[in-house]
Design goal:
elongated, single chain, alpha+beta, nine-stranded antiparallel β-sheet
Length: 367
């Protein structure tokens, strides 16, 4: 194989696909990046058998072929050459020569025949939605995914696709996120559970445009193609929690307030709570004011927020981190907070739309 390509294009491609290599494996081929040269294109791919990333760039292909380069070393090497024109030549002994300006480097490559085949999706069902909507859908749900391995199914986001919308659901036992976005087109109605790690890599490729993104969903796999970069992920298998049974429908305390004021007050109040590592912030709701307070051995903080209240006064406490992580993914100016009692979940929604619903469990406090 022999190709000539732009260093910046190659560096960008290597950086993207390297996120798919495996760092914890006894199989060296999964630490590699496969490079395939055909016609006028060079395709780079990496996989850890759960997540696969493939990127195609233009190149001057003098001899077609394929090779697997050591991923970590190749990535570090090539990103130092992003201002150069690079010639890659792999001989019959799998020895790769990397030529640039008047210099040359050599790397021993792996056997490309041992590299796992990446699944194709030509005839699979798919749905389409705007890039900005998919990006927002991921951001507003992924924060609530479980990070522990106690229930592996909760380390993913459930996607429910209908003819009208895509609903993303994530929960970790302490909080729940339900987000809805319009679908542009779908060939079927279905649901799947996508690993959070994969959604995070997909999100990095999305922009805030109206460009239409196509997401293919096959049996046990999902694939999205964005700007000549394909991300393929294995889906999680198992029964997801029936989240609709968790969401309360009757509320006795309803609060409307400014999101930024609440976030700023929470971040200040939680400074003390983090000292004791309990991250506990108390909410006291009465009349037109919500008082946020926290205490530790070194002092106490109280923050007053002007609110619009309908219903009963209430005293309730939360882990501040769960609240701040939810608020940081929102752009709404005003939010609605709904409560039933001091031991029942808080529901956070937009004051203007039904695009999202966040649920956060309170922390029991001694009277």
């Amino acid at each position: 194989m022999k190709i000539i390509c732009d260093g910046a294009d190659l560096s960008d491609a290597v950086l993207k696909v390297s996120k798919g290599t495996s760092n914890k494996t006894t199989n060296p081929i999964l630490e590699g990046i496969k490079v395939v040269a055909e016609e006028d294109y060079v395709t780079l791919s990496a996989t850890d058998l759960e997540l696969s990333i493939e990127k195609t760039i233009k190149g001057m292909v003098q001899i077609e072929g394929e090779m697997v380069v050591p991923g970590k070393f190749f990535c570090e090497y090539i990103k130092k050459l992003n201002n150069e024109q690079i010639e890659l030549h792999c001989d019959e002994k799998n020895m790769l020569s990397i030529k640039y300006t008047d210099s040359v480097g050599k790397i021993q490559c792996l056997n490309a025949q041992e590299f796992p085949e990446i699944k194709k999706f030509e005839d699979s069902p798919y749905f389409e939605m705007k890039s900005k909507d998919l990006k927002s859908l991921i951001a507003k749900s992924i924060y609530a995914v479980a990070v522990e391995d106690v229930r592996p199914i909760l380390k993913g986001v459930k996607l429910e696709i209908t003819n009208e919308k895509v609903t993303a659901v994530a929960l970790d036992g302490y909080r729940l996120a339900v987000v809805k976005k319009p679908v542009h087109k779908t060939t079927a109605e279905f649901s799947c559970i996508v690993p959070a790690r994969s959604l995070n890599e997909i999100s990095k490729l999305l922009d805030d445009s109206d460009n239409i993104i196509t997401v293919f969903v096959g049996r046990n796999f999902l694939m999205v193609d964005i700007d000549n970069t394909k991300i393929t992920t294995r889906l999680l298998e198992g029964d997801f929690i029936n989240y609709t049974q968790i969401i309360p429908s009757d509320f006795t305390t309803n609060v409307v307030l400014n999101k930024d004021q609440l976030l700023d007050a929470l971040e200040r109040a939680s400074l003390l709570s983090r000292v004791d590592r309990n991250n506990l912030v108390k909410f006291e709701i009465a009349d037109k004011v919500m008082v946020l307070s926290s205490k530790s051995e070194i002092g106490d903080i109280k923050e007053n927020i002007t609110i619009s209240l309908s219903g009963n006064d209430l005293s309730i406490a939360f882990n501040a981190r769960y609240f701040t992580e939810a608020l940081r993914v929102l752009n709404d100016e005003f939010l609605k907070l709904q409560f039933t009692s001091s031991v029942s979940p808080c529901i956070i929604t937009s004051n203007d739309t039904d695009e999202f619903l966040f649920l956060i469990l309170p922390v029991r406090i001694m009277a």
